[in-house]
Amino acid sequence: MRQPYFLTSEKGHRRVNQSEYTSKLDEFDYLMNDPEADPAPERVWEVLAALSFHDLSHGTAAE
User: Fold this and answer.
1) Rounded to the nearest 5 degrees, what angle is found at the Cα of 9, between the Cα atoms of 55 and 49?
2) Does residue 1 fall inside a structural domain?
3) Which residue, of 30, 37, 41, 54, has the fewest CB within 10 Å?
4) Phi, psi (5° rounding) for residue 31?
């Protein structure tokens, strides 16, 4: 099984920059709202996990 893009092997979670965050929001919207999308649970959880590493109060990833 492949590792989610936001994981690294030695430092845990990496920062999610604004561009990646926006991209993941768009992907989540697509998975949840497009009737032709295949919202596989594994992919939905992976996207949600990536979104959780973005600190909205500072516009950067949480540490």
Assistant:
1) 35
2) no
3) 41
4) -60, -35
Structure-token match 């926006």, residue found: 22
For 13-45, the pLDDT digits (tens) are: 566 788 888 999 999 999 999 999 988 999 999
Residue 30 domain boundaries: 17-40+56-63
DSSP E strands, the chain = 7-8, 12-13, 54-55, 60-61
Dihedral angle of Cα 39, 23, 1, 40, to the nearest 10 degrees: 0
- The residue written with tokens 């500072």 in the block is 58
Residue 8 lies inside a defined structural domain of this protein: no
**Structure tokens belonging to residue 58:** 């500072």
pTM flag (> 0.70)? no
Rounded to an integer, what distance in angstroms lies between the CA atom of residue 16 and that of residue 25?
A: 12
